Structure formats: C-alpha cells, structure tokens
Amino acid sequence: MQLNKIYNDDCISILNDSNKIFPNSIQVVFADPPYNLSGNGLKSKDSTTGGDFTMVNEDWDKMEESEFINFTNEWVKSCKKILKPNGSIFIACSYHNIGESIMSLKANGFEVKNIVTWNKSNAMPNLTRRVLTHTTEFIIWAVKGKGWVFNYEKLKELNPDKKKDGAVKQMRDIWTMPLCQGRERLRDEDGKKALHPTQKPEELLKRIILGFSNENDVILDPFAGSGTTPYIAKKYNRNFIAIEKEKKYFCAIEERVCKTEIKKPTQYTKQNTTKHQSEQDYLSGLFGFSSQDNTKQARKIQM
Ligand SMILES: C[S@@+](CC[C@H](N)C(=O)[O-])C[C@H]1O[C@@H](n2cnc3c(N)ncnc32)[C@H](O)[C@@H]1O
Question: Are the C-beta atoms of residues 87 and 143 closer than 8 Å to each other?
C-alpha cells in the first residue's frame, strides 16, 4: 500500500483494490461526495457565477435517485472494509443527501456519533426568494467499532468559543465558519473563477484531522476534489490517500499537495520523515513488525 498517494480514478475501484488500500488500515475517512443536487432546475452549467461563490451544477453530481442510493451504499461499504476497527468516517452532506448518507451508514453497521452542523457565515443569498436562505451543511461522524480516537483537549483548544475568563470550552456540534474564499480559494488559470465549486475550508478539515486522528495515521479522501484533505493531512504530519476521478482536479491536487511547499506550524516541523520512512513506520504499527522488516513482508502477510 503506497502512502501519500493521489489516485486519478474511480473511488470504488481503488477502495476495493486491497493491494492499493489494505483492509483495516485507515484511521479517518473524510468523504465529501456528490450531493446529487445538480440539474434540478439549475440553469447555470460549469459555475458561471465565478469568484468565491460558485453554483454547483456538474455532471459528476447528477444521478437518478436509485442510482444515487446504490452508489452511496457501494462506497460506504468499501470504506468500512478499509477503516481500522477503531476508525472514523466523516461524510459531508446537505439536506439533499443526508438521508441517503445516514441510511447507508446504518445499513453497513456504522454507529453515528455526532452530526456537525456547519453554519456558513457567508452563505449565498437565495436567488428564488421562495424559500429560506440555505446556510448550513452537515458532517456526519460515524465509527466502525469501539476505541475511536477523540482528542478531547485538542478539540477544546481548537474551539474559537471561549469562557468569559478566556478558558477553553468543549467543542460543540455547530461549527461557524465561512465558505472557502480569498487567498485560500484555488482559482483557474486566469485567476478569476474558483477552480472547484465545492472546495471545503481548511479549518473544517483541521478540526477533523487534529480532533480524530494522531500523527502518522492514514487519512483517506475518496472524493478529493481540490485536495483540501490531503493538504491538511500533510500539514499536520498525517499520511494520506486521496482519490479523484476528474483529471483537472487530480492535477490541481498534485500541484497543491505534492509540488508546492506546505508551510507547517512549528510544532509540526520537527518530525521530517520521508515518504518511505513513514510507510515503514506505518506498516510496523499495523502488523507489529520491527522497523527492519520490509514492505514486501507486510504485503505477503496481507495476501
Ligand atoms: C464535493 S467534491 C469534493 C470537494 C473537496 N472536498 C474539496 O475540498 O475540494 C466531490 C469530488 O468528487 C469527485 N468524484 C465524483 N465521483 C467520483 C468517483 N466515483 N470517484 C472519485 N471521485 C469522484 C468529483 O470530481 C468532485 O471533485
């Protein structure tokens, strides 16, 4: 299994290839799948709104409902197989696909622990003027088994909301943060239009990765888009596997994560393991090998 790898492929085929992703090997899956919200009455194709605020109307986001239910079940089932017994899965969703997501999690034996409500502080106004302005998305957190990682103190530290005396508070399940914008937002070649219509904010992934995994753990994103998950995983010394079907976005992830130097906070700069070394360390932990044992041996046992 190659760590710190980005695949330009369909996620279900990669998730089901046990040479590429070992069963029981992943600590955290963050999945931001198609919400299946495109097409229904939306006229604008390919994000003509431009800038930071882009309308999602993409071919990868359109399916018949029965196809969408099967697709959701398929990738959720595949994620269950590759998660460690104490691993966590996070599924980003909106009112469009929260039902299918929870049903698939339950059908595949996951236990839902929390549903985070992302309160989008700069949400787009509603253009139809016939419904309330949509200002929320959700992130479902579910676990495969017992002993999940929950970095309680770290999450308190990350909570921007403080007590009156400035002391830290427990992290709650409503997270207020803006849609990804400004310098953080990746743009197309002429620098005007957002490169990806649904780029998630770095702060969202920071809370998930620091709160629910430890250094050197493996974080997997089956729908990597612009690569926010591998970018944050690398920044905070986690290993990553990312899968993205569209060539254009795959190239953007390579550029963002592999070809550009990522500025790490000082506490994460000490450890500077090479890709090969981190794979060795990871396999040692997974199979109980000493660090002298090599990758081939681990592969043999896996088969
Ligand atoms: C909602 S976006 C993810 C955005 C990402 N979280 C970010 O921060 O940029 C979903 C992505 O999944 C990709 N995708 C859709 N179906 C896929 C599949 N079957 N396998 C792999 N990628 C897929 C789309 O091309 C799209 O980039």
Answer: yes
Look at the chain and report how many structural domains it folds into.
2
Helix (DSSP H) and strand (DSSP E) numbers for the chain:
9, 8
pLDDT at 299: 34
Cα gap 83→65, rounded to integer Å: 27
CB-based pocket (< 6 A), ligand 1: 10-11, 32, 34, 60, 196, 198-200, 223, 225-226, 228, 243-246, 249
* Token pair in block for residue 38: 């495109």
Three-class SS of residue 31?
Answer: strand
CA distances from 89 to 4, 28, 38, 46, 77 (A): 19, 6, 25, 30, 11
Same domain, yes or no, for 38 and 144? yes
Quick: pLDDT tens for 20-73.
999 999 999 999 999 877 655 555 545 445 555 555 667 776 788 889 999 999
- Asked if residue 275 has pLDDT above 90, the reply is no
The model's pTM: 0.86
How far is Cα 114 from Cα 90, in angstroms, rounded to an integer? 10
One domain, residues 185 and 107: yes
> From atom 5 of ligand 1, which residue's Cα is the shortest distance away?
225
